[in-house]
Write a structure and sequence with these properties.
By secondary structure, the protein is mostly beta strands. The protein has a single domain, classed as Beta Barrel (Thrombin, subunit H), CATH 2.40.10. Strand 3 and strand 4 form a beta hairpin. Pfam families: PilZ. This is PilZ domain-containing protein. One of its GO terms (molecular function) is cyclic-di-GMP binding.
Length: 120
């Protein structure tokens, strides 16, 4: 039986990084900063970020992210879509599929090696 991990396009790196996430209304490019959530990542990959949530977010919701990476790798302004939201083992998580063509998506992607691994 295949697992979800075998279906992933890029490997995940467990990382705890701080980020702000804003839910985007349909068709919007930005929203009021008062609606930002301040979250922690669970893991990252070239094409996605898994975040810990205080409350569920509906899949297919577009989001705007600001993530400050440790080790002086910079701050990235990213866009994506919530791909899933679930509570495995009681911890509420959401997977965000990144749109690497918007914001700092290409700069984000350049931080990963040819095999999709983020250097520690």
């Amino acid at each position: 039986m295949e697992t979800a991990k075998e279906h992933r396009r890029y490997p995940r790196s467990p990382r705890e990084e701080s980020l702000s996430l804003t839910l985007l209304p349909a068709g919007a490019t930005s929203v009021d900063t008062e609606e930002r959530l301040f979250l922690t990542t669970h893991d990252i990959s070239l094409a996605g970020i898994c975040v810990e949530l205080p409350a569920p977010i509906r899949p297919d919701t577009d989001v705007e992210l600001w993530i400050a990476m440790l080790h002086q790798r910079g701050t990235y302004h990213l866009y994506g879509t919530v791909a899933w939201c679930a509570a495995p083992e009681g911890q509420l998580l959401a997977g965000i599929a990144l749109d690497l063509e918007r914001g700092d998506g290409r700069l984000w992607a350049s931080q990963f090696n040819d095999h999709g691994y983020y250097p520690d």
